[in-house]
């Protein structure tokens, strides 16, 4: 069984981001980029399924410019068998990514499509759901536990607002991962060396017969208003006065 | 599970720290003659006059007798207030007495300080003083009754002027993270804490020169610089608490000395207040200034005994985007050494840190330090390396690093390794190395030795001590391999003088035998003044004392520390 894992290259989680002075976006020049943490968790889960003997192949895919190859190398260094780079310079938003993934899934025929629940740069949380809809595959999002069954199905425990929900899905299925699913492994030297020989195939949206149109235009990006400091009040009367006349809550 | 010693009241008494009016046990021989050359030390379990101590004479035989200059004994009178320099300190039992030249604190003094600092800057409450009186390792406890927190250099000057005139002893204090008891009072010295002087004064982006007050916390400075494209040239585990004034006064080393050099090179200027209150403005911001003697150098590493640092001007390197951290496993120490040679050659200018730790250290930190994760759970090697590269080009650096790792693996210098793929992973590798110090404290009573040794001999001492102490203690070794700096830690269930006798002066003797340093970066503080002779000739110590007398004629700045007392030195010199 083949598992396809989609990973995204984002600004490193630990970096303090800055908005560009021209408000067109976040500063990415000279900033450390890494694999999206949720995508890492997705890849780790795929590797564990393969190590348990339930899958034969883990393919990692990323989309965008040439730097994606670095992220794919990380994926291969963690242990994926091969990688696919969907090469495009167009800005990619969730619907376009979902369409590309549909085309790839149709081509590669994986039984499980694993993604992170959202990317830490846009926090969209849409791609997994959209591609499931496009493929007409069952989906289990925010997975905190994934157990493969014998009858070509998978049982997934999901973290929802009310608690934990358990779903059983028939394969092929789309699963998006949440934080508590697993702790991703480090890339060890033997795997890093092996990764150099693993294939990274390149494909374009045109070859996949997917047309990418920008769905929307970003007007401006600004920092959220700075939080005002607290004020020490001198007496209860002052507090009541402020609550009434400044905060307007009583 | 070994108990946590930090808050146990009992073991504080074990160390021989006494309160006023109590005398501690003296050996019969020394009771007879409290002073002078018949002072006794323990040699092989029994008390002997120090002149007959085989251990001491072996150590001192390393010194050329002709170079010792006899000194006149100032004859300090011992009072009933005595302080044993316990917990693994200088060779032999030295009994430090409160120097009677120093005045005792009076109410009038406190009133005067309140006038200078206002009520907020003066603390006399014993609970608040508890923290300032105790060092980070909870080994040393002072008895100060007064903590002062100035806000300006002028206030520091007025305080010292008053103390100098009134012969009040002063202990300058920063973050209180020192490991040799140099930052806390020994008796009732007034604590001068500079934590309130924490303003950043200026930063020149073009040259990278940062000027700030001595009380700035190292991590805060780093955060300030990060958003401006620079970093501090030093980095140590205590960065969240240590202050730059203290770092300068102890010539702190740390993890990045390999790449950015020592503070002697990075500090461009200092503002220092001398013992008599004189404000010495050496706060230059020039990279090159050869006008006269470079006075600031004498204060860097003086541990607060020659002057109080109030402002620092420091050169900061640019923050480079591409940082890679690798955690490697080696079979034996020789492989570690060879890996270091390879790393220097193949990584060249991008190598920014090279640390090592042995298997025992790894197990200790995984057990006792929260949130650490074994980077190589499948490998069971004996030595681990943390190698960091910092450069400006991600792909160039990654390529160089991978080439180095491949070559090291092919030559079988490293058995296994992991490379951090993002900043969070890199931090988790560093946490393993940086967390060892804290883990040792949680593991039991720890004796720390910070030694500079030739690279090929670095680990021999650890194996030596392990054999020597066998079951009585756990011996771990780790440190800044790139700088030839070993942190030898010996952890026992409790502090025990018998154990100390087996460790010291053996460790110092072995270090002196290879011409190493008995204190690579921690300084001498209260713990090691007498050990200075293992690494410096008496003539040098004499010159140092000359400086001390010149800069601080009343001896009020951080007394009982760094340099051996005149009484101790004369005793040693007379013996030869």
Automatic annotation (TrEMBL), chain A:
InterPro entries: ET-Flavoprotein_bsu_CS, ETF_a/b_N, ETF_b, ETF_beta_N, Rossmann-like_a/b/a_fold. The keyword Electron transport applies. PROSITE patterns: ETF_BETA. Residues 23-212 form the Electron transfer flavoprotein alpha/beta-subunit N-terminal domain. It is found in: Mitochondrion matrix. One of its GO terms (biological process) is carboxylic acid catabolic process. The keyword Transcription regulation does not apply. The electron transfer flavoprotein serves as a specific electron acceptor for several dehydrogenases, including five acyl-CoA dehydrogenases, glutaryl-CoA and sarcosine dehydrogenase. It transfers the electrons to the main mitochondrial respiratory chain via ETF-ubiquinone oxidoreductase (ETF dehydrogenase). This is Electron transfer flavoprotein subunit beta. The lineage of its organism: Eukaryota, Viridiplantae, Streptophyta, Embryophyta, Marchantiophyta.
Automatic annotation (TrEMBL), chain B:
It catalyses: (R)-2-hydroxyglutarate + A = 2-oxoglutarate + AH2. Pfam families: FAD-oxidase_C (PF02913), FAD_binding_4 (PF01565). The keyword Oxidoreductase applies. One of its GO terms (molecular function) is (R)-2-hydroxyglutarate dehydrogenase activity. Residues 140-319 form the FAD-binding PCMH-type domain. The keyword Ligase does not apply. Its EC number is 1.1.99.39. Keywords: FAD, Flavoprotein, Oxidoreductase. It is an enzyme of class 1 (oxidoreductase). It comes from the Eukaryota. Its cofactor is FAD. PANTHER family: D-2-HYDROXYGLUTARATE DEHYDROGENASE, MITOCHONDRIAL. Belongs to the FAD-binding oxidoreductase/transferase type 4 family. This is D-2-hydroxyglutarate dehydrogenase. It comes from Riccia sorocarpa.
């Amino acid at each position: 069984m083949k598992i396809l894992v989609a990973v995204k290259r984002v600004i490193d989680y630990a970096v303090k981001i800055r908005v560009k002075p021209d408000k067109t976006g976040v500063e990415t020049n000279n900033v450390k980029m890494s694999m999206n943490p949720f995508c890492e968790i997705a890849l780790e889960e795929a590797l564990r399924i393969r190590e348990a003997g339930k899958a034969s192949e883990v393919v990692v895919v990323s989309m965008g410019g040439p730097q994606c190859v670095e992220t794919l190398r990380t994926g291969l260094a963690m242990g994926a068998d091969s990688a696919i780079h969907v090469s495009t310079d167009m800005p990619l938003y969730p619907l376009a990514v979902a369409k590309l993934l549909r085309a790839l899934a149709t081509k590669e025929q994986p039984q499980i499509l694993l993604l992170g629940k959202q990317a830490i740069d846009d926090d969209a949380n849409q791609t997994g759901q959209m591609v499931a809809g496009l493929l007409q595959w069952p989906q289990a999002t925010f997975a905190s536990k994934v157990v493969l069954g014998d009858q070509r199905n998978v049982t997934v425990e999901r973290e929802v607002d009310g608690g934990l929900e358990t779903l059983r899905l028939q394969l092929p299925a789309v699963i998006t991962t949440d934080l508590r699913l697993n702790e991703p492994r480090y890339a060890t030297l033997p795997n890093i060396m092996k990764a150099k020989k693993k294939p990274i195939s390149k494909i374009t949206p045109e070859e996949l017969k997917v047309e990418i149109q920008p769905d929307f235009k970003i007007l401006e990006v600004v920092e959220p208003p700075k939080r005002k400091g607290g004020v020490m009040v001198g007496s209860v009367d002052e507090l009541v006065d402020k609550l009434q006349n400044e905060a307007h809550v009583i | 599970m070994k108990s946590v010693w930090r808050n146990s009241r009992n073991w504080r008494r074990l160390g021989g720290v006494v309160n006023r009016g109590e005398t501690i046990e003296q050996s019969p021989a020394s009771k007879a003659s409290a002073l002078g050359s018949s002072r006794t030390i323990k040699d092989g379990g029994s008390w002997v006059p120090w002149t007959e101590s085989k251990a001491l004479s072996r150590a001192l035989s390393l010194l050329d007798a002709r170079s010792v200059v006899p000194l006149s004994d100032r004859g300090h009178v011992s009072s009933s207030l005595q302080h044993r320099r316990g917990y693994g300190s200088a060779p032999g039992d030295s009994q430090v007495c409160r120097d009677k030249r120093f005045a005792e604190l009076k109410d009038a003094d406190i009133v005067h300080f309140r006038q200078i600092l206002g009520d907020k800057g003066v603390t006399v409450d014993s609970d608040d003083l508890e923290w300032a009186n105790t060092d980070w390792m909870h080994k040393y406890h002072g008895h100060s009754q007064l903590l002062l927190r100035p806000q300006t250099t002028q206030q520091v000057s007025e305080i010292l002027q008053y103390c100098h005139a009134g012969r009040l002893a002063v202990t300058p204090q920063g973050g209180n993270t020192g490991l040799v008891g140099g930052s806390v009072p020994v008796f009732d010295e007034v604590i001068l804490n500079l934590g309130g002087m924490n303003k950043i004064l200026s930063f020149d982006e073009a040259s990278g020169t940062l000027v700030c007050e001595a009380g700035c916390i190292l991590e805060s400075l780093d955060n300030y610089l990060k958003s401006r494209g620079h970093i501090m040239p030093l980095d140590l585990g205590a960065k969240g608490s240590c202050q730059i004034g203290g770092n300068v006064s102890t010539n702190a080393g740390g993890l990045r000395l390999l790449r950015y050099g020592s503070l002697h090179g990075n500090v461009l200027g200092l503002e220092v207040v001398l013992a008599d209150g004189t404000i010495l403005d050496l706060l230059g911001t020039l990279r090159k200034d050869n006008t006269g003697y470079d006075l600031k150098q004498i204060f860097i590493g003086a541990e607060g005994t020659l002057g109080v640092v109030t402002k620092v001007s420091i050169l900061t390197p640019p923050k480079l985007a591409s940082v890679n951290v690798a955690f490697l496993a080696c079979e034996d120490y020789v492989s570690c050494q060879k890996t270091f040679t390879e790393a220097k050659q193949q990584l060249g200018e991008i190598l920014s840190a090279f640390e090592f730790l042995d298997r025992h250290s790894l197990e200790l930190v995984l057990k006792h330090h929260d949130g650490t994760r074994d980077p190589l759970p499948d490998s069971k090697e004996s030595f681990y390396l943390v190698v960091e590269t910092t450069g400006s080009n991600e792909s160039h650096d990654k390529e160089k690093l991978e080439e180095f790792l491949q070559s090291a693996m092919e030559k079988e210098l490293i058995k296994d390794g992991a490379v951090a793929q993002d900043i969070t992973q890199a931090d988790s590798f560093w946490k393993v190395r940086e967390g060892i110090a804290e883990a040792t404290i949680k593991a039991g009573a720890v004796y720390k030795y910070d030694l500079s040794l030739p690279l090929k001999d670095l680990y021999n001492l650890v194996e030596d001590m392990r054999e020597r102490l066998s079951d009585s203690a756990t011996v771990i070794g780790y440190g800044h391999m790139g700088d030839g700096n070993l942190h030898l830690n010996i952890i026992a269930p409790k502090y025990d003088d018998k154990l100390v006798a087996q460790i010291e002066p053996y460790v110092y003797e072995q270090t002196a035998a290879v011409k190493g340093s008995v204190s690579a970066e921690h300084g001498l503080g209260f713990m090691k003044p007498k050990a200075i002779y293992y690494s410096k000739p008496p003539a040098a110590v004499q010159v140092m004392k000359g400086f001390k007398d010149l800069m601080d004629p009343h001896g009020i700045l951080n007394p009982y520390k760094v340099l051996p007392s005149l009484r101790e030195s004369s005793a040693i010199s007379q013996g030869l």
